[in-house]
Amino acid sequence: MLKIAIIGSGFGRYGLLPAFASIPRCKVVAICGKKTKAMADDCKRFGVMNIYSDWRALLENEKLDAVALAVTPRAQYEIGKAAIKKGLHVFAEKPLAATAAQARELLALAKRKKVVHSVDFIFPEIAAWKKAKEMLDKNTYGELRHLSVDWDFLSYDIEHKRSTWKTDSKEGGGALSFFFSHGLYYLEHFAGKISKVKSNFTYSKESLGGGEVGVDMLLTFENQSTGHVHLSCNTRGLRKHELIFRCARGTMVLGNTHGYVDDFTLTVYDEKGARRVKVPAEKKAKNEDARVAVLRKLAARFVNSCTRGVDMHPGFAEGVRVQELIAEIRAQSTSAKPRARTS
């Protein structure tokens, strides 16, 4: 039985806790975060006896095999390092750390201590995304020539005028680091390694932390296929996440128009016309965050890797790769930085 602790009272409570609590051969023995009524109720529901407000005390007092983290990138670096030094396996959020140097340090330490490590890159676990990957790997419509991403939505922090790390690029936030860390991972998951990027950022006074609200990119992959990306987390009235795979003998469109991981469809277009590809529906529990059903797949793989002592993918190496791409894109962005605010 793998004994795991959750650290984080936001997504840690309503995402990681129900996901890991449902995995056979895994027991959530403790959680660290704000001691709210919601936290107490969820811990009671999932049989978690110990609630901590100090992660150091949790690591010191609990007999653990692993931790699952849902904290800020800077805190994740600090907590992850402490957990790995104790020989604990680590399930981490994205981005892995606030900087590429921190991410590389975590990977090197995890290798040295021979612990299992994973990063919550959730999108490729969705059934429709898995089917798209399978069809690309089989060259169902020939080689991939161009991949485009169009992702528009209004982020919670911008909508509710919140100044948090999620809108501060120095803390691992901003549209590129916080949201498109997912995208940089899934672009290479589908199309192979990115070799060239040209990018442009957009800013808005509505991002109270000063981080960018939009990213547009032109891409070249090592296999010479090309791509372009449009991401905006400050789009009002439109929610859309769409990937278009233009292949030699047809086109695949993967997308949804609401929610985060909800109801993605896969449609193919070729000389026979358009048709929807059937994929199994994600099994969602009543009143459960939609991400939990997908996250549960990664959590189960992590638990299996820990109990068998084998590597897990995506792991910290993928997290480092994304972090290095983020640093490269920020360094060469052609957009003017916003002027400093005055009081």
From TrEMBL:
This is Gfo/Idh/MocA-like oxidoreductase N-terminal domain-containing protein. Residues 2-121 form the Gfo/Idh/MocA-like oxidoreductase N-terminal domain. It comes from the Bacteria. The keyword Oxidoreductase applies. One of its GO terms (molecular function) is nucleotide binding. Keywords: Oxidoreductase. It comes from Candidatus Kaiserbacteria bacterium RIFCSPLOWO2_01_FULL_53_17. Residues 129-252 form the GFO/IDH/MocA-like oxidoreductase domain. Pfam families: GFO_IDH_MocA (PF01408), GFO_IDH_MocA_C3 (PF22725).
